[in-house]
Design a protein that fits this description.
The chain is mostly helical. Strand 2 and strand 3 form a beta hairpin. Helix 1 packs across helix 4. The protein is globular.
């Protein structure tokens, strides 16, 4: 098995998310919570994003506070990639 830092082809997180969410540009908060933040309900997720505890931009479909909210596919991909990078750094630190 090749190491994670070799020159083998990489799967794009954004591409995988496009397949998972059928090409949707904006993923509803409920889906993001269900799939990646299962420990949070949508309300708690929205509060944590608003407080800066989860560093991911949230899109409001209108100016209203009650409007539908979602996360742009690329922003979710970037967030997941950053969490993976942090996990890799932690793993390398443990192996040293």
């Amino acid at each position: 098995m090749k190491a994670a830092n070799d020159n083998s082809p990489r799967l794009s997180t954004a591409f995988l998310l496009m397949a998972q969410y059928n090409g949707a540009a904006i993923i509803p908060v409920e889906s993001v919570c269900r799939d990646y933040f299962s420990h949070l309900d949508p309300g708690k997720f929205i509060r944590k994003v608003g407080a800066g505890e989860i560093a991911i931009p949230m899109v409001r479909m209108e100016a209203s506070q009650k409007s539908a909210k979602g996360v742009h596919l690329q922003d979710l991909a970037d967030y997941l990639d950053s969490r993976r990078a942090a996990a890799l750094r932690e793993c390398r630190g443990l192996a040293s």
